[in-house]
TrEMBL record:
Keywords: Heme, Iron, Kinase, Membrane, Metal-binding, Oxidoreductase, Transferase, Transmembrane, Transmembrane helix. Belongs to the cytochrome P450 family. It comes from Boothiomyces macroporosus. This is Protein kinase alk2. The chain crosses the membrane at residues 7-24.
């Protein structure tokens, strides 16, 4: 009797497991939407768990893994990645689909709850985390300050002042002959520059060492990146010993920036914070301190990490490509002569330096992944059916390395940018495209090239161990082990 009962019990259990395997053969358990089975799944897919095991097993290389799937020989029009209890992502890798979701049918593809649920505790309702009317109002306001005229003024004032401090720090490092982590220094330099440009404040993180709120920013960026691939992030977050305090530090930093300005006798400066402070909602009310802090925090994240990481990868790419490095030094010396810091017009004249910056971002885009949630059922121009609630994703990292889009895609060739015909924003997606294209694109290019040229005019950089330079999973594309360099002063 007992044996018979056990036999039925084991049989039933095996039956349930087999049924689960059959039912969740193509999609992870709890996937919120089922995608048509005719769209191929990622090779790393397992029944029930989808792609989660492979993604979190080597989380820092998950971007490379996605790139290999999208640029692999079996990729046709789209591939699906599902992880348990989350929206499935239908990845595309062609400019037509990217144009469709980011522009042609913009209204149907939003950030949605996927992003909100993962980022709101840090970013609140900042521009990265909003859709519709809220997004539009913030975008219009910010665009008023992020103008080319203001960038030109910034070059002559803030950039020149800050680069002087940066060069001073690098001089001391060169004299001491001790290796330094350029990845960390770039983050501190751009934090200070951005604090000054956007909020008119001196953060002094370069000259006074790393403040604790910067450590919190860094750690939380990584946590937010992990949340995008790990569906079990609420559990991981619960056991994260730093997270609660880090978020508190970041929010307090944002609120302090606001409160300090509100307390000023003359708060009518020409910067982002003044604009947000003077803004009135439709009902005539002003933004609260908390809302203003959302903007402060979001713009620091937008302006600091992206450009700092782009320059870190630029030094890495130049070290791997001596011919490009020589050509760049030649242009800098020809145009600057004895002058140590470039002027606005000289940066515009430096075709090769601008090409170097773009070429680095093609291979190492600071925002390597993009995803938008479909509001309604839809069909992409390539015929792929998109169910309501699924995410349509694309990877600037994969598109930049696609042989279908770039000749000799894996080669670092700044020369490809010297042609008069430039690729469209739907091919070169490092700054996104459509109505949500990066608002700071021109500023980033100007400040990136200005900084690169200024430091190369003054110093030589030797990366100590090229093999140790690795990507790290995050919202952006930081370096896992930093970028340790030996610096010498140029004669
Ligand atoms: C190399 C530097 C940079 C790169 C590669 C870059 C790239 C991007 C990308 C890919 C997006 C879209 C992100 C998304 O879909 O959520 C974006 C958005 C944005 N970026 Fe940048 N960015 C850079 C620097 C900057 C700077 C310096 C600013 C300064 C203000 C800035 C401001 C913004 C803003 C405000 C948005 C949100 C736009 C919107 O949602 O309407 N970015 N950026």
């Amino acid at each position: 009797m007992e044996n018979t009962r056990n036999f039925y019990f084991v049989g039933a259990a095996l039956g349930i497991i087999s049924a689960a395997f059959w039912y969740y053969k193509d999609d992870a358990i709890g996937a919120t939407v089922r995608v048509d089975k005719s769209v191929p799944r990622f090779k790393i897919h397992n029944p029930i768990l989808g792609g989660v095991l492979q993604m979190i097993k080597d989380i820092d290389n998950s971007g490379i893994l996605i790139e290999e799937e999208l640029n692999g020989p079996d990729f046709d029009r789209a591939k699906v990645l599902t992880i348990p209890f989350a929206e499935p992502t239908i990845f595309v890798n062609d400019p037509e689909s990217v144009e469709y979701i980011t522009n042609t049918n913009f209204e149907n593809y939003i950030k949605g709850t996927f992003t909100k649920w993962r980022l709101t505790d840090v970013l609140g309702n900042g521009i990265f985390n909003t859709d519709g009317h809220d997004w539009f109002v913030q975008r219009k306001l910010s665009a008023k300050i992020l103008t080319n005229r203001n960038f030109k003024l910034n070059i002559e004032t803030v950039f020149s002042e800050n680069i002087g401090i940066f060069i001073g720090v690098l001089n001391a490092v060169a004299e001491s002959q001790t290796p330094v982590d350029m990845h960390s220094l770039f983050h501190r330099y751009f934090m200070d520059s951005f604090g000054k440009i956007a909020y008119g404040i001196d953060l002094n993180s370069l000259s006074q060492g790393i403040p604790s709120y910067v450590v919190s920013f860094d750690r939380t960026q990584n946590t937010m990146g992990d949340r995008l691939v790990n569906p079990f992030f609420p559990i991981v977050d619960f056991f994260n010993p730093y997270l609660k305090n880090d978020i508190k530090m970041i929010r307090e930093f944002g609120e302090k920036v606001v409160k300090d300005r509100v307390g000023e006798p003359h708060n009518d400066r020409n910067d982002l914070l003044s604009l947000f402070l003077s803004h009135c909602n439709e009902d005539g009310s002003k933004l609260t301190t908390e809302e203003l802090a959302d903007h402060v925090i979001s713009f620091i994240l937008a302006g600091r990490d992206t450009t700092a990481q782009a320059l870190s990868w630029t030094l890495f790419c130049l070290s791997n490509n001596p011919a490009a490095k020589t050509a760049l030094y030649k242009e800098i010396d020809e145009i600057l002569g004895d002058q140590l810091i470039p002027k606005y017009d000289q940066i515009k004249q430096m075709k090769y330096a601008n090409a170097v910056f773009k070429e680095t971002l093609r291979l190492y885009p600071s925002v390597p992944r993009e995803g938008k949630v479909a509001v309604n059922d839809d069909t992409l121009p390539n015929g792929i059916k998109i169910p309501k609630g699924a995410i349509v994703g694309f990877c600037p990292y994969a598109m930049g390395r696609s042989e279908k889009l770039w000749e000799n895609a894996s080669a670092y060739k700044p020369e490809r940018w010297l042609n008069s015909k430039q690729p469209s924003n739907y091919v070169y997606t490092a700054f996104m495209c459509g109505p949500r294209i990066c608002l700071g694109k021109n500023l980033a290019e100007l400040q990136g090239v200005f900084t690169l040229v200024s430091i190369l005019k003054n110093f030589d950089f030797e990366i100590i161990d090229l093999g140790s330079v690795k990507q790290k999973m995050s919202l952006t594309l930081p370096m896992k082990n930093g970028l340790m360099c030996r610096i010498t002063k140029r004669k």
